[in-house]
Amino acid sequence: MTPAPDLPTFSARLIRWQKLHGRRNLPWQGVRDPYAIWLSEVMLQQTQVGTVIPYYLRFLERFPDVASLAATGIDEVLALWSGLGYYSRGRNLHRAAQVVATDHSGVFPRSAEALQQLPGIGRSTAAAIAAFAYGERRAILDGNVKRVLARHLGLEGYPGEKGNEALLWRQAEALLPADAGPEAMAVYTQALMDLGATVCTRARPRCAACPLRQDCMALREERVAQIPAPRPRRALPERETAMLMLRMQDKVLLRKRPATGIWGGLWCFPEMPVDGDAAAYCIRHFGLEVSPLGHMGQGAPLDHVFTHFKLRIHPQPLRVVSAPPAAMRDEARWMTLDDALAAAIPAPARTLLLRLGPPGRAQAEQSHG
Q1: In principle, which of 34, 54, 254, 278 could form an S-S bond with 267, CB 3.0–4.6 Å?
Q2: What is d(CA 90, CA 82) in angstroms, rounded to the nearest whole number?
Q3: Dist CA 190 CA 333 (whole Å)
Q4: pLDDT at 363 (0 to 100)
Q5: How far is the C-alpha of 296 from the C-alpha of 274, rounded, in Å?
Q6: Residue 345 to residue 32: CA distance in whole angstroms
Q7: DSSP state, 358?
Q8: Active-site choice (41, 113, 136, 365)
Q9: In this structure, what are the phi and psi dihedrals at residue 333, rounded to the nearest 5 degrees?
Q10: Per-residue pLDDT for 293 more than 90?
Q11: Where do the H-state alpha helices sit in 205-294?
Q12: 247, 293 contact by CB (below 8 A)
């Protein structure tokens, strides 16, 4: 879209708006350290700012640079990531840190192309890091920016559809500041993010406060509520599993999941088919004799939704009445509730652990989290 002759360029309006109205209080703003910028960009993928901030601050405190992150074990990384979701991001974060440490002598690559070669860094994330850290003239296209550009263009259809996404990338590149220096490039990139997050929001957008309102096609055609079109809905397949909540005195049994697949590398309750015999399973796999445990509510089903399917979890609270003296295999470990809650565990396992906690513990944990 070509602006009217008397209308400042798209980028000029955004830069001016950002300096007057953009966000100022985010902990990763105003920094040029590519490590800190990379960390924030990865955490912000598919996660709200308010959720990310405490995780970001804890990560930086524990791992202040890429060398400290690369040197630690994946278990500690995933433990700090626990609750943030999309755990492949945490695993890729650790792998990327190791690549930077070993293949780049601990120094982040300076171009978007080279950054994109690191695990877990896609085109938009690489561009954002390059723009913020090095002032590189690169277009970004995260979820907020897709919404801004889709409305500005009056885009028909779902933005994630292949043809529409290609169109949005072309538009994002065409709208970049023509001769912006490093500072202006960083301001412009932040402005796109901030406009989508605070003004051009999915629900109740504040069009009257938008610097792009004069040539926004969605506003002109009164289609702001319809653009962008939602992802085409499809029924998610449903799966079921039984989770064995084995308790022996003050400890519970957790098993480390394989490195790949859902919850890869996380600690979770052992699983079995929902129609299986829990007592026979415990004897066969762990040499444990068990009896039912728990009160009403501990065994209530728990639903968890992934991107591609829904999982219904059937908890099986069990008390161990006899255990062999032999140690558990490496992938299984007895942990106290405190240790289990501090480990790298998925959200459903945390919920089930809180059901097992002594009186007052669940409430304390939920208020802390």
Answers
A1: 254
A2: 9
A3: 45
A4: 37
A5: 19
A6: 33
A7: P
A8: 41
A9: -150, 140
A10: no
A11: 217-220, 278-286
A12: yes
Which residue type sits at 204? R
Place of tokens 């702001």: 224
Report in angstroms the alpha-carbon separations of 356 from 277, 282, 305, 315, 337.
21, 19, 23, 11, 8
Q: Cβ distance 32 to 136 under 8 Å?
A: no
What residue has token string 């695990």? 119
Residues 60-98: tens digit of each pLDDT: 999 999 999 999 999 899 999 988 888 889 999 999 999
Name the DSSP letter for residue 320.
E
Distance from C-alpha of 296 to C-alpha of 159, rounded to nearest angstrom: 46
* Mean pLDDT, all residues of the chain: 89
The class level of CATH for 238-368 reads: alpha beta
41 catalytic? Reply is: yes
**224-259 residue pLDDT tens:** 999 999 988 888 899 999 999 999 888 899 999 988
Q: Where are the beta strands (DSSP E) in 81-169?
A: none
Phi, psi of 319 (to 5 degrees): -100, 135
SS3 (DSSP) at 171: helix
Contact 215, 7 (CB under 8 A): yes
Domain locations along the chain: 10-220, 238-368
What topology does CATH give the domain 10-220? Endonuclease III; domain 1 (1.10.340)
Continuous segment of H or E residues that includes residue 10: helix 10-21
